[in-house]
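User: Quick sanity check before I run a bigger batch. Here is a single chain. Can you write out its predicted 3D structure?
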Amino acid sequence: MFNAPGKRGRKHADDLRTVVDAMLYIAQTGCQWRYLPQSFGPWTRVWSQFRRWSRSGTWAQALTVLHAAAREVGGRTEETPSMVVIDTHLARHAWRVEVAHGRLGRSRRLAKSFENTTTSATGWLQVACIATALRHLSRERGGRRPAAVAA
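Assistant: Done. Predicted structure follows.
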């Protein structure tokens, strides 16, 4: 899903894994684009790719794939839940909601609203959710990094 060719511009290079890692780094640390470490490549490439994927819905598609994979690893039979109920009177759905919010709160990029557009803000929220899903999947698979997701 990350290798889908665009209508304009040059074709994707082989370093898309590095670009995704750079976006996960920014989501976690909250660093500014211009202060992105050189090991991730030019910040302008990462920035333009983030904008492109946010606008095209690539982050939402990646999150859908990761959600299905997490349900499979968790032993769920269906890719999507048949029903979701959040009842604040049950101490267990309220605790889980608070835990989910706490995990997202660890992404420093989400700590303050730096974004000028809702597309960008939504993109960073999706990247933070992807990072959480990747951590969950890697923990469930014995600490190995899921290579098929970003490739």
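The chain has one domain: 16-76+85-150.

User: Great, the batch can go ahead then.
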